[in-house]
Amino acid sequence: MKIVTWNVNSLNARLPVVLQYLRQSRPDVALLQETKCVDEKFPAGEIEDLGYNLALNGQKTYNGVAILSKRPIEDVRRGLPGDEADDQARYIEALIPTSAAPVRVASVYAPNGNPPDSPKLAYKLNWLHRLRRHAGNLLKQEESLVLGGDLNVILTDDDVHDPAAWEGDALFLPQSINGLRAILNLGLTDAYRACHSEPHRYTFWDYQRGAWAKDHGIRIDYLLLSPQAADRLKACEIDKQVRGWEKPSDHVPVWLEIEE
């Protein structure tokens, strides 16, 4: 079973790239972030024509997450618990049946947090705390769980081209790193690092300053696995080449394969 996570940076603007990737890569499940459209404006027809069922949590202009699945989508839950006043569309989860045990998947888009001297950082840190609490509750169910998405945290110096260049950025602050580490410390596995130890493998390159051509990237997109899912992990890769396609997102897909 192949599961991919991808921040598409406006689905309707990137639709040709997304459709090309789905045709070529043929994931069973795709977790999308930053769709940036309300559910009524989601290009459902084009994606359903490729054989995908949809679960959506959209928002006008900003945020937006989605789950695409070639299998049935069950037990859909929209929104991250813990703050009823939070109306930002940053989280959706669902249960996907397989021939073995079902897999619970979530598409996650954590807040950026910049500028750090604004309320946006406090919102980010509180959001990560809420994600930790919810992930802890999901782990109690002892399911195969895959949390995939743009977590907007650079975890280590090995995940950034130049640590000094990102010093003071909300993505690389100790508070943000500690927020993600607290989630991992619940017993979740970073699928990419479980398969690869080499440093400086990135998932995001800014559109500015020639970042892509210079390989000045960061790794902020993750697939996090419960112990039950980690036991089924076969492979995990970053599809870096997609950043070189015409009119790409500034993020690239990250995918894993787990045993059925």
Walkthrough of the structure:
This protein is α+β, with helices and mostly antiparallel strands and 260 residues long. The protein has a single domain (2-258), classed as Deoxyribonuclease I, Chain A, CATH 3.60.10.10. 23% of the residues lie in helices and 26% in strands. The protein has helices at 15-25, 44-48, 119-139, 174-184, 191-195, 211-214, 227-230; strands at residues 2-7, 29-33, 53-57, 65-69, 74-78, 91-96, 103-109, 144-150, 189-190, 204-205, 217-218, 221-225, 233-238, 254-258. It is globular. The mean pLDDT is 97.
Q: What brief labels describe this structure?
A:
six-stranded mixed β-sheet, 260 residues, alpha+beta, 7 helices, Deoxyribonuclease I, Chain A
Beta-strand content bin: 25-35%
CATH-derived topology = Deoxyribonuclease I, Chain A
Task: Specify the biggest β-sheet.
Answer: 6 strands, mixed
- What number of domains? 1
Class by SSE composition: alpha+beta
The CATH architecture designation is 4-Layer Sandwich
Short summary of the structure?
This protein is α+β, with helices and mostly antiparallel strands and 260 residues long. It has one domain (2-258): Endonuclease/exonuclease/phosphatase (Deoxyribonuclease I, Chain A, 4-Layer Sandwich).
Helix/strand layout:
Layout (H helix, E strand, L loop, with lengths): L1 E6 L7 H11 L3 E5 L10 H5 L4 E5 L7 E5 L4 E5 L12 E6 L6 E7 L9 H21 L4 E7 L23 H11 L4 E2 H5 L8 E2 L5 H4 L2 E2 L2 E5 L1 H4 L2 E6 L15 E5 L2
Parallel strand pairs: 1-2, 7-8
Antiparallel strand pairs: 1-14, 2-4, 3-4, 5-6, 6-7, 8-12, 9-12, 10-11, 13-14
Helix pairs in contact: 3-4
